[in-house]
Amino acid sequence: MQFEFTEQQRMIRDMAKDFAAKEIVPIAAEMDEKEQFPADVVKQMGALGFMGMNVPEQYGGAALDTICYVLAMEEVSRACASCGVIMSVNNSLVCWPIETYGTDEQKKRFLTPLAKGEKLGAYCLSEPNAGTDAANQLTTAKPDGDGWVINGMKNFITNGATADLLIVFAQTNPELKYKGIRAFIVENTAEGFSVIRKEEKMGIRASDTAQLAFDNVKVSAEQVLGGEGTGFKIAMSTLDGGRIGIAAQALGISGAAYEAARVYATQREQFGRPIGAFQAIQWKIADMATRLHAAQLLTYRAAWAKDQGGRYSEESAMAKLAASEASHFITNEAVQIFGGNGYSKEYPVERHFRDAKITEIYEGTSEAQRMVISAMELKK
Ligand SMILES: Cc1cc2nc3c(=O)[nH]c(=O)nc-3n(C[C@H](O)[C@H](O)[C@H](O)COP(=O)(O)OP(=O)(O)OC[C@H]3O[C@@H](n4cnc5c(N)ncnc54)[C@H](O)[C@@H]3O)c2cc1C
């Protein structure tokens, strides 16, 4: 067992840390306040290779391992969780399925600009009636000559209003239930595609989350991702990797809140002593640090497992469950350690507290992660 990062992993982490400190930290609070999509940051992340970190070089990616991706995600999310989710969706939910299930032609045409950061991707699975029950797809795809026509609505889509390319899941034959689902790569310029509305959110407010409509959207046969009956498998296997990205996002949020609280505990004085001298605060610090490190270990293990090949559904579900619940706990305790200042927008912990909550909801709620984990445990 190895508990050390490689030189390359440390280098990527340091590069991401420097970049985030210089380019993201100074503008993160303002972007959150104004719900401003970080277009410049996304462009810079593309130039650094952060938008296609695990994609092979021949398709414009950085060809790095999943631990590098987790470390970069952690640093970016520590500065701004909105930037983190934009990066995570492009890498895990869009580049990965095209790299894994796409034809060479699709990789050249769609994956390469996504991995280079020239184009942005979105993953469209959720619908008003298909949340945790993601197989209940009411969006349809019907054959039309050589291609397909898509009709339906997608809900809560990250990068939905901004993305150039969208992976859209649709039902081709309701009688086949989940086996009738297929995946399509849709361009945002397609006739019939529109943004219905953008969500106003509690946290990750600089990220764009949109409800989308597909009204007789035509796609060619070259835009079908994977074979017949594989759409649901593509959707679920993609989320296995996505959950590692969201676990890393949660670690970043936790790390930022923990560090701010740790420093504050040494500086803020009450009763003539730093509040860190009181056992009530010391125990919070101990619990926060322990949960953060436990979640880190599970997340790095899931990233490692992904790179070994084979299945890693349970490892990624455990990582996301532990990291998201740790971030809920840690950001809540951080606000508590800051007292009244924790509730004020003058300090960053209230933003971390708001940002943490989403990590327990998207890419499968904590209840859904427990379903995945328990199903695998009980099968053993
Ligand atoms: C900011 C944001 C960004 C998102 N980005 C994307 C995206 O890019 N692409 C995309 O496709 N989706 C996205 N989503 C959707 C997200 O994945 C769903 O919201 C999530 O899967 C939960 O679905 P739901 O909201 O319909 O909740 P529901 O499924 O209605 O669940 C409501 C509650 O019931 C619980 N529940 C449901 N079924 C069960 C069960 N069988 N057993 C126990 N408890 C259960 C849930 O855990 C939850 O607590 C995003 C959501 C948000 C808020």
Give an overview of the whole structure.
By secondary structure, this protein is of the alpha+beta class. The protein folds into three domains: 7-120, Orthogonal Bundle (Butyryl-Coa Dehydrogenase, subunit A, domain 1); 122-232, Beta Barrel (Butyryl-CoA Dehydrogenase, subunit A, domain 2); 234-379, Up-down Bundle (Butyryl-CoA Dehydrogenase, subunit A, domain 3). It is built from eleven helices and ten strands. The protein has helices at residues 7-34, 39-48, 66-79, 81-101, 104-116, 231-267, 279-307, 313-338, 340-343, 349-358, 366-379; strands at residues 121-124, 140-144, 147-158, 165-171, 181-187, 193-198, 209-219, 224-225, 269-270, 273-274. The strands form three sheets. Strands 1-4-5-8 form a four-stranded mixed beta sheet. The protein has a four-stranded antiparallel beta sheet with strand order 2-3-7-6, covered by helices on one side. The chain has a two-stranded antiparallel ribbon with strand order 9-10. The chain is globular. It binds flavin-adenine dinucleotide (FAD). Flavin-adenine dinucleotide (FAD) is lined by residues 89, 123-126, 131-132, 156-158, 201, 209, 358, 361-365, 367-368.
How are the elements arranged and paired?
Blueprint lengths: L6 H28 L4 H10 L17 H14 L1 H21 L2 H13 L4 E4 L15 E5 L2 E12 L6 E7 L9 E7 L5 E6 L10 E11 L4 E2 L5 H37 L1 E2 L2 E2 L4 H29 L5 H26 L1 H4 L5 H10 L7 H14 L1
Parallel strand pairs: 1-4
Antiparallel strand pairs: 2-3, 3-7, 4-5, 5-8, 6-7, 9-10
Helix pairs in contact: 1-3, 3-4, 3-6, 4-5, 4-6, 6-7, 6-8, 6-10, 7-8, 8-10, 8-11
Flavin-adenine dinucleotide (FAD) binds next to strand 1, strand 3 and helix 11.
